[in-house]
Amino acid sequence: MKRYAGQTVFVTGGNKGIGQGIAKRFAEEGATVVIAAIDRDTPEAASALAAETGADVTGYVLDVTDAHAVRDTYEQAEARHGPLSVSVQNAGVITIAKVENLTEREWDLNLDVNTKGVFLCCQEAVRRFRASGTKGRLINTASGQGRQGFIYTPHYAASKFGVIGLTQSLAKELAREGITVNAICPGIIHTEMWDYNDRVWGEMLGTYGPGELMAEWVEGIPMGRAGTPAEVGALVAFLASRDASYITGQTINIDGGLIMS
Ligand SMILES: NC(=O)c1ccc[n+]([C@@H]2O[C@H](COP(=O)([O-])OP(=O)(O)OC[C@H]3O[C@@H](n4cnc5c(N)ncnc54)[C@H](O)[C@@H]3O)[C@@H](O)[C@H]2O)c1
């Protein structure tokens, strides 16, 4: 199945975790893939994905909170690979703290990366879709915490509720141009971020050993297991496909049935 042959897809945070699962799925389906993330080894991650899939994959080091850098990176990507047709805003951070210990810096970091960063990349992608006349696709990674706040993460929850709001607003603005904008809400997906969650929430919520908190929470998922980056990649590739042509402004949970609203 090469649904994305001839298309260029931009994925933020595509060097590892969920973003890597998304980038890999597009690469396997024939896309030229651009990954952009803050980690220094992002170009090497791109080379590894290219070697694994045989696809054309380029990696840029990018801080999505820096509007000039965002513009510059999209410009470089299009100069090299031609017009983009899909942009996936997936880069994100989390920190966990009791309300009186939550610093302004943490608040700003979560809102800047998770919400402003998503907006800046959507904005730049839209400029480019409009310039090339592309009926492009925007897919934004929110979270189960964009549906329901969770203990010790008011800043993260606020940032992810924000992603859903900006997704709906942009979807309305862009609908008549044939550009669709959707959000996804992963539940528990085993990545480095989840290892951090397991450790820090585990310490704060009781005497959990490594992996024990995650195991307890996974037990509460109707499907009884965590999800994989590959499963998230499959959803994103669907939302970016022709089969999803009449879907916009939607927020799709991908969480084994954890949240059903
Ligand atoms: N893992 C989960 O269970 C889970 C659940 C719900 C939502 N999410 C969301 O999924 C997305 C990916 O999470 P993950 O679990 O793969 O995490 P991860 O920690 O494995 O990866 C995070 C990615 O974001 C990138 N990033 C962070 N700050 C950045 C910045 N300023 N500029 C550019 N890139 C930056 C990192 O380089 C990395 O590629 C995030 O938005 C996260 O909030 C994850």
Any key phrases for this structure?
single chain; 261 residues; alpha/beta; Rossmann fold; 7 strands; binds nicotinamide-adenine-dinucleotide
Describe how the helices and strands are arranged:
Elements: E1 8-12, H1 17-28, E2 32-37, H2 42-53, E3 57-61, H3 67-81, E4 86-89, H4 104-132, E5 137-141, H5 154-174, E6 180-186, H6 192-205, H7 212-219, H8 229-239, E7 251-254
Parallel strand pairs: 1-2, 1-4, 2-3, 4-5, 5-6, 6-7
Bound molecules: nicotinamide-adenine-dinucleotide.
N-to-C series of helices and strands: EHEHEHEHEHEHHHE
Principal-axes geometry comes out as globular
| Cα radius of gyration in angstroms | 18 Å
Distinct bound molecules: nicotinamide-adenine-dinucleotide
Can you give the helix content as a percent range? 40-55%
What is the chains' assembly state? single chain
CATH class: Alpha Beta
* CATH homologous superfamily grouping: NAD(P)-binding Rossmann-like Domain
Class derived from helix and strand content: alpha/beta
In short:
This protein has 261 residues and is of the alpha/beta class.
Question: What does this protein look like?
Answer:
The protein has helices spanning 17-28, 42-53, 67-81, 104-132, 154-174, 192-205, 212-219, 229-239; strands at 8-12, 32-37, 57-61, 86-89, 137-141, 180-186, 251-254. It has 261 residues and is α/β, with parallel strands linked by helices. It has one domain (8-187, 229-254): NAD(P)-binding Rossmann-like Domain (Rossmann fold). Strand 1 (8-12), helix 1 (17-28) and strand 2 form a beta-alpha-beta unit. Helix 1 (17-28) crosses helix 8. The protein is globular. The chain starts with 7 loop residues before the first strand and ends in a 7-residue tail after the last strand. The mean pLDDT is 97. It binds nicotinamide-adenine-dinucleotide. Residues 12-13, 15-19, 37-39, 62-65, 90-94, 113, 117, 141, 143-144, 186, 188-189, 191-194 line the site of nicotinamide-adenine-dinucleotide.
